[in-house]
Amino acid sequence: MGSPDRDYYHRDRDTEQLPSGWQKSVTNHPTKWSWKSFIKYFFIWLAILFIFLTIFKDDKTQQKSDSRPVNAVNTLLSSITPPLTQHCIPLPPHGSSYTIEPSVMKRTDVLYSGLEIQNKYSYPMVAILGDSMSDKRFLAISIASDDTVQISVPIGQYSMQVLVGSDWCNLEKGFSDGAVVSVSGGISIQTGSTTYMQFNGTSLQPVQMALGYRISQPVDAQSVSQPTEMIGVGKVELKQTRQGHYFSSGTINGAPVVFMIDTGATTVSISSEIASRAGIQKCAPLLVSTANGSVTACTTTVPEITFGKFRLTNVDINIMPNMPGDALLGMNVLRKFRIEQVDKVMRISSR
Fold first, then answer.
1. 276-299 mean pLDDT
2. Dihedral sign for Cα atoms in the order 50, 51, 57, 58
3. Is residue 25 part of a domain?
4. In sequence order, what are the residues at sequence separation of 6 or more whose Cβ sits closer than 8 angstroms to the Cβ of residue 268?
5. Stretch 105-130: mean pLDDT, rounded?
6. Would the pTM of this model clear 0.90, i.e. be above it?
7. What is the DSSP string of 202-246?
8. Domain identity same for 241 and 140
9. Which residues constitute the domain of residue 208?
């Protein structure tokens, strides 16, 4: 056996005769390396998880930080623009009026009469007219202390509230340091009359207010009217209708109207609608007897009436409630003419 063979033999022999402990150590060496790797990778993943949680936390914090200015802006806006019911404004100047229901307070199918309110109270006030049968408000008027307002409103029955104080807010809240006083029974605006109201008082806590109330009738228009004058020559021929009536077109104060000729009527009569069109706002109350009984009307004098070729000035007329048709041409006008009726034709001519 040569030298190389001997060396190999000895190496092989030495390997076979190693102590069992060493062999175990050598055999378990790969196991120790796997445990270290596990620990190594565990800490690596733990570090990655820590970094992920840190990033997530920073992102959430950033989101919270971004939301704060939005909340602050919303809060600021709500404080700048409070709800309408809480928004206070300066008291409107004396005599200012606010129409809450134009369909009621600006009607053209009814007559208007005057309302005068005198504030002798120590504080300004806002008078509110409303529906006497509900809580609806129609009109608000600002009245300074020791001053008076005069307005024209549609005839009718109204409720009235009076807001008094010194620190005005709005129509919903009134005066922040004042009170709301209701006029018992409301007020009445009558045809051809002026309603006067005077409020007196000095205190707010408690409110001590007295009301003076009266309705004034104007001078009878018939007692001061000038004689009616007829202008024009010629004649008007009118054909009888199937119902046996005669009609003529004309005007009252320039407003177009269709007159029915009525020789049984004492005075020219018109409806409330025609009176409104003609701009008639004041008249004196009058009790009129009709075929259906007595009714309360009003009377006034108009500057001009025309029909056909004729014009009349300073003509007395009656304004009738619930009158069918436009107008009746009565005898206070017809007696100034010659009237003939032949074969269903009426001729009205100047004398």
1. 78
2. positive
3. no
4. 305, 315, 316, 317, 318, 327, 328, 329, 330, 332, 333
5. 88
6. no
7. EEETTEEEEEEEEEEPPPPHHHHPPPPEEE--SEEEEEPPTTS--
8. no
9. 97-216
